[in-house]
Sequence to fold (247 residues):
Amino acid sequence: MKRLNPVVPVVLSFVILCGALVLCESVSDKSEEMTNLFYHYYSFEPTSLLEEIEAGNINVFSPIAEEPPLVPSDQQISVPWTQGDYFRIANALFEFARGDTLDGWQLNSMYFILGCPEFGTGLQDGNLEFFKIVKTNERVSRIVRIVNIYPRNKYVFITENEYYPKLVDWSSINFGENMFSADAVLQIADKAGGQVKRLSVENACNISLLLSPDSASYEGWWAHYYRRDDDTTLFRVKIDPITGEVR
Fold:
């Protein structure tokens, strides 16, 4: 079985960031200058991670010097993780690696991926992008923190960048609006036609779920079913994050 490509969420994050930077550069012929503040990989044990975090233990991440090699597909395990689980992991990682929590951070985008055979099991990779506005005297900057969580390959990546001066306002995802989660959106997308398409290729496909208000084509959640062998699109649908309506 072909493994999922963990590079996709990383690339997606930088595509979103680059899109924002292009907008910045058009504002009064100025640009936001990026300074990296933090960049690190950590390994973890997916089978016990959530249980340890639930028990209050955040010392579950082991620093590693570089991105580890991919775990062979026949040694990978599926995880029964939900969107909420990924946020719990991100919160623990924030505290462990940076000494804070999700409090005070705004969510700019989230992206999840799973293999079609894992439909109904859980989300298998997660990418979360947060930001906050920091004001120091007359200096106003945007701090962006990206977390990529790869349970199949037993590691997480976190990076933090400062953009100064802040020239544009980013949108944020407000969970206080009874928003449909990635887990619910996956079910809606499958009923809307995804199931037929994935079964037509005997589940030899992947599914990605993206919510990114600042993307150029934003119209809510994007659910994308695509073949594993050549990434050909099988099915794509937009879903309203508030009503759950298929567009």
Notes: Residues 6-11, 13-27 have pLDDT under 50 and may be disordered. The longest strand covers residues 125-136. The first helix runs from residue 7 to 25.
